[in-house]
C-alpha cells in the first residue's frame, strides 16, 4: 500500500472515532507507524489531508454513478442500479459521512469543504438530468428539474438510515422502492416549480477545463502513482492517443475500462470519458 493511501485510511479511522478537531497529526502518524516528516511529504497539513479524503470519496462515487448512467446498455433497471450504487457507497462510508455532517458546522475548513462538496453535487446533478432525459425523454421536459431535486431529496432523506440508525438495511428493497416512487413522480407530476433559469442559478459552477495539456499532465501524475502494469500501459496508450489520435473509439473505450475500476483512477477515467466524448 502506498504511504499516501495508508495515511488517508488510518486518518479516516481516527476521524470516525473522534472527529476532525480532536485528531492530531501525531495520532495519525502513530496509527500509521510513520514519522511526522513522512506525513508532511504527503500532505502539507491536516486540512489538506481532510480535503483529500473527501476528494477521494466523492471522485469515486461520482465516477461510478456517471459510468452506470451513461454506459448501461438498456434503460431496464437503470434507476434501480443508480439508487443501489448511491446507497451502497453511503453504507460503505457511513462512519466518515456521519463525521462530515457533524463537523461541517464548526470545522475551520467549512467554506472550502462546502465549496468542494457543491462542486461534486453539480456534477451529480448533470448525471441525474442525463438519466432523467434518457429514461423519460420529452414526457418530462417541463418537470425534469423538479424530478432531479426529488431524486436528490430521496438520496438525502434515506441516507439518514445509514448515518443515524444502527440496523441492517436491505439495499435491494430500498432501491426497488425508490425506483417505483421515482417512476410514479415522473408519470403523474403535472405542476412544475423549478424552471431552467432557476436551476442554472443554483448550478453555475464551471466544470474543470479539459484541455489536452491538462489531461496529459493528469495522466503523467497518475502514471507515477500506480504500480499495476495493465493500468499503467493503458494510461501510456491513452496519453499517446491524446497527443496524436490513432485509435478507434472502441479501443479508447477499452483502454478506459482497463483503468476504470482502479481506486486511484476513477476520477481520471471520468474526466477522460468527458474529454473523448464517449
Automatic annotation (TrEMBL):
Keywords: DNA-binding, Repressor. Transmembrane segments: none annotated. InterPro entries: Homeodomain-like_sf, HTH-type_Tx_Regulator, HTH_TetR. Residues 1-61 form the HTH tetR-type domain. Residues 24-43 bind DNA. The keyword DNA-binding applies. This is TetR/AcrR family transcriptional regulator. It comes from Heyndrickxia vini.
